[in-house]
Specification:
Elements: E1 2-7, H1 12-23, E2 27-35, H2 39-42, H3 47-61, E3 65-69, H4 71-87, H5 94-113, E4 118-120, E5 126-129, E6 136-139, H6 157-161, E7 163-164, H7 172-181, H8 203-211, E8 218-222, E9 227-231, E10 254-259, E11 264-268, E12 274-285, E13 295-300, E14 308-316, E15 319-329, E16 336-341, E17 344-351
Parallel strand pairs: 1-2, 1-4, 2-3, 4-7, 8-11
Antiparallel strand pairs: 5-6, 6-17, 8-9, 10-11, 12-15, 12-17, 13-14, 13-16, 14-15, 16-17
Helix pairs in contact: 1-3, 1-7, 4-5
């Protein structure tokens, strides 16, 4: 008999993931919804609706449902990291941090203390155990358009050994069909596209309102260092951005670099966005602890990006160099580089500002 604590966000994916666990009658299943937002954050989120939807599904499935308050922990490790990263001129990925620290971090620790063996989520990916060496592996989901293995690369072997991903072999349309079949209130619920704690994806307003501080203006410069104009703050711009740059130009221009030390934003042509190398830190490998020689992989630097063949070399305990076979556009510090061998996730890390 296995005991599962199923993380129910109030969406269709976690609803069906919970139902699939119950379908195996030898499992003991309870639902849990995490309270992550303080009063300030709750004003921008449909927290109550999501909680009520999760409760409704749990009631329909006749399982116990808990609410755990992780708000202090979430703000400390996810929200504050998000703010700090943006203020340093980088572009964070809070879902990566949340998976590591919250959903497969604190929640797994709590579930074990409650006597549960596994935490289940509605992520689209697969976890397998290598029978040869006993390591846990992450594999892409059947639905390649929904695959979320990218945001799971930081998970440790301990976390993977206590994680369950019931949706790995299902397509999204199959998930919705199951939800409709069981009459879940979440069956036709729209998928969330934005960062959960930021309304309408407006992170600029969030940074201003939540921190109560204004961004410091600085200079736009060209690739030769000449001043072109004044920008409104580093966090208001993203590498690769074309629209919304307050400069007059007779050709398309792009944000090609941001420098926290000098508070400058470099403007260049599309070609200036191309790069064949990057350095990443906060690295994690899934099939092994580290590499002593370079490995060939397919890699991407954004969630929806097409992968490019690359060579990964570990240059320190917590640092790698990734050399791409073909130039990649708009490599952005703060985002994650993630790499695969076929369908298997090999690992990843956080892209740094470090130049080679």
């Amino acid at each position: 008999m296995k005991k599962y604590l199923s993380a129910m966000s109030g969406g269709v994916d976690s609803s069906v993931a919970t139902q699939l666990l119950i379908y195996n009658t030898s499992n003991v299943v309870a639902g849990v919804t995490l309270s992550l937002f303080d009063k300030k954050l709750s004003k921008t989120c449909s927290v109550l609706n999501d909680l009520n939807d999760a409760k409704d599904v749990a009631k329909k499935l006749h399982i116990e449902h808990f609410v755990l308050d992780f708000s202090d922990y979430f703000i400390t490790y996810v929200v504050n990291d998000f703010i700090k990263t943006y203020r340093l001129g980088n572009t964070p990925n809070p879902c990566v941090v949340c998976n590591k620290k919250i959903k497969f971090g604190k929640l797994i620790d709590e579930s074990i203390s409650f006597g549960y063996d596994y935490v289940a989520t509605g992520h689209y990916a697969k976890i397998e155990k290598d029978q040869a060496d006993g390591r846990y592996l992450i594999k892409r989901a059947k639905d390649v358009n929904k695959d979320q293995s990218y945001v799971l690369y930081p998970l440790s072997q301990h976390q993977l050994s206590h994680a369950a991903l019931p949706l790995g072999d299902l397509r999204k349309d199959e998930v919705r069909d199951i939800a409709a079949q069981f009459g879940f209130i979440t069956a036709d619920k729209t998928d969330s596209q934005d960062i959960c704690f930021i309304k309408d994806g407006d992170y600029k307003t969030f940074l201003k309102d939540y921190t109560g501080t204004e961004e410091q203006s600085g200079y736009f410069i060209d690739t030769n260092g000449s001043v072109l104009g004044t920008h409104s703050g580093l966090s208001n711009y993203t590498i690769g951005q074309r629209r919304g740059i307050e400069l007059q130009a007779n050709k398309p221009i792009y944000v090609t670099n941001k420098d926290y030390q000098s508070n400058t934003i470099t403007i260049g042509d599309k070609e200036n966005l191309l790069s064949k190398t990057l350095v990443a830190e906060n690295i994690n490998f899934i099939p092994f602890d580290g590499i002593s020689s370079s490995i060939k992989v397919s890699a991407k630097t954004r969630y929806k990006q097409t992968e490019t063949l690359a060579l990964v070399s570990q240059i320190d305990t917590d640092k790698i160099i990734v050399e791409f076979e073909n130039p990649v556009s708009a490599i952005t510090p703060g985002q994650s580089v993630v790499f695969y061998d076929g369908d298997y996730l090999i690992g990843g890390g956080i892209i740094t500002n470090e130049a080679l």
